[in-house]
Amino acid sequence: MKTNALAQTKIRTRGLRTLLLLLLASSAGVSLGNPQHWAAAIAAAASTNISPAAPSSQKLRGPNPKPLQPKEYKRADLAITFPTDGPRSVLVEASRSWRSDIRTHIVAGPAAEVHVRSLKAQGAHRGETFTKLPDFPGYPKALRAALTPLLALGALGAGKFKWLLYGDDDTIWVIPAVLRLLNAAGLNADEPHMLSDYLIQLPDAARPVHSTVTDFVEDPRCRPCPKGQKFCPCRLPPKCTQPDHWAFHNCTFKARLLPYGGVGIIYSVGMLRLLAQNPQFFPSLVFKDVHRREPWGDRVVADAPRIKGFGFTRFQAARAPGVNCSRLFGTFSGFNERSGLEKIATKLQDAAKHQPVNLRATLSMHVRTGPLLEGKRNLVKDYLPYYHKIVRSLYQLHENSTGSDIPALRFP
Ligand SMILES: *[C@@H]1O[C@H](CO)[C@@H](O)[C@H](O)[C@H]1NC(C)=O
Ligand SMILES: *[C@@H]1O[C@H](CO)[C@@H](O)[C@H](O)[C@H]1NC(C)=O
Ligand SMILES: *[C@@H]1O[C@H](CO)[C@@H](O)[C@H](O)[C@H]1NC(C)=O
């Protein structure tokens, strides 16, 4: 039964990839017609691919017959994924400085095609793979970001990693800090975990753009962990899992609770398997939810787990001793920050001096390209030098870590 379940997971994730590839292939020559049909096409193609469901305990625990003992995740257990397009694609090479040995799946838009082709001509970089995904007429470009986690699952394969670090192309992950946290909390990657503590709340359906950054950092909706267990997946009360995202009125917390995607989200492979179990579930939700009124990719990626019954895993108790900042994701990133890059670089240098414990614990940083691109600035000249400086600052306190497998930063 167990090997069967594994095979089914493979078929399902492969099914998802196949149907998206079919969809992409069809976009090349055929007239696109009504964009609404794309969702129907995905659903129809997917429905031929559903295997009988396994018993639910097995689903959540995952098919791995011998689950990895917690507290010993290594770099090889991580994978990274992000979308990119246009001039931002220079971040593919730039981010290799800190992710060189970690499997990475990049979902590239049409305006990155020439760049991706030249990257491929230079020879495959270790563990780096690409999906080319067109713009979908009538849909916001953020659709690409929304589809990215499950495209990565399909491309990488559920057996090849334990934790997926999903962010934007301008998200920097601090890998040693990520591993320290996952191991300190002893989280089981075969269970459905979604991690972020940079949460925003949307209390009003009539104002879907308005948001409030939470002053608490732990999901207030989670049911308590089983007795004797300090950390567990965040199981939501049934009244918090309505298919309608705005139907939170009977939930214990009366707002949509979403992550700030720019500082990234960490998914366990168990969570991704759950989202891919019914291959039409996630793509259908994406095509329904990412629209002109809510043109963001980082909403559906947390609403989908919520509908499946899971919120954000509570992990604050696993913080390193002495850490006293409010959050570990994007500790030094403002929400949609517009400060100049020089100012951000200085902020990190100050942090290294005055709050090294907090800097060492920070998991990620969003170094936004948006403001520069709006000002038609050149990323290679005006952005990358700061990006590299910021990477150095985020990693400086990890460079002499002992007993780990941290390679030196390698800048292009
Ligand atoms: C909340 O519960 C009440 C009473 O059961 C019900 O009438 C109402 O429709 C529910 N609201 C939502 C948004 O689910
Ligand atoms: C955090 O701790 C440091 C001492 O290690 C202290 O100087 C600082 O004021 C504290 N910050 C907060 C926000 O409590
Ligand atoms: C790491 O070790 C080198 C060589 O011993 C030393 O120069 C450097 O200051 C150390 N860095 C940190 C952050 O401790």
From TrEMBL:
Primary site of residence: membrane
Membrane-spanning residues: none
Leader peptide range in chain numbering: 1-33
InterPro entries assigned: C1GALT1/C1GALT1_chp1
Any one of the GO CC terms: membrane
Keyword Hydrolase: no
Keyword Oxidoreductase: no
Key words of the record: Membrane, Signal, Signal-anchor, Transmembrane, Transmembrane helix
Localization per record: Membrane
Superkingdom of origin: Eukaryota
Membrane topology field: Single-pass type II membrane protein
Family, similarity comment: Belongs to the glycosyltransferase 31 family. Beta3-Gal-T subfamily.
Name of this chain's protein: Hexosyltransferase
Organism: Gonium pectorale
Species lineage: Eukaryota, Viridiplantae, Chlorophyta, core chlorophytes, Chlorophyceae
